[in-house]
Amino acid sequence: MNKSQFEEKHKLGRKQLGEHLKKPGRIEVNENTARIYERAFGCTLEDLQRAPATEERKKSRPMGWRRIAFPMSDNDRMILKLTALRYNVEVTTILRMSAALFTIVAELQLSDRRRQVAEMQAQLDAFPTGLGHLAATSHGQGQIMEALASEQAAIKARDLSGSSFFDHEWGESYEGSGDLFGDFLEQKLMELAPDIYEHSGGSPCSDLFGDVIDDLSQDDPLGRMVLLKGDVQPQDVMKLPADERIAYLHDHCRAETRAAFEEHEAFLASLELDFDLGSDEREDDA
Questions:
Q1: By three-state DSSP, how is residue 119 classified?
Q2: Which residues, 6+ apart, have CB-to-CB distance to 93 below 8 Å?
Q3: Average pLDDT, the chain
Q4: What is the value of pTM for the model shown?
Q5: Contact present, 166 and 173 (Cβ < 8 Å)
């Protein structure tokens, strides 16, 4: 994109743009200009304020520090941003604390399972001995003891998900997802943060802030993609009245985002999905 195209798209004067691009050091700009560069270069204000990673700067990093990069879905990135906003911390703070936070949650889950094993063992120990002559009683107790042994072994191995259990060890009446850790996260999120969590059948980690994202985008498909792609920041959309959000999102849509949206819409159209509920009802009536 040349200077004229940049000026046309982002409404930044040629003279001002030229001065900024020529200056080798740090530049001071107002918030509005910073937001323009944020949208234009597809980065955050935090990224813009960070000095470029020159070879000299890389060498000057404290020993033991390294920049890392890993793929993350647009939805998960938005959840990370909204979590940081909710608790008034930086995204980097959450990432640095992730190992400690995961350890805490994992140990809470294992502790909860130990408690349940202990409670069941106590009930077995208190079981009346006067019915020992009945085969079903002894058989039932034996099965429970085997189940507790399997659970204790899994806990000792720190098997959070239950992947070490054989198929025949899972209870037929179990209504969970098949991932004990995911079920524990869902339970705790429903208890502690019901205002931002609603289970939709996927991973609990990806079901956070669903209603918030819907509200910010006003259920507009293009607006949602603009938000998730990072063309705008959620805190900026939050400041707007609900009836102004779609127009704001559309106005700040980058060309790359619009192209991705159109490609996605074309793909959905090519599937030719047809959910004609009326025909089903007619067939039922017949």
A1: helix
A2: 84
A3: 83
A4: 0.69
A5: no
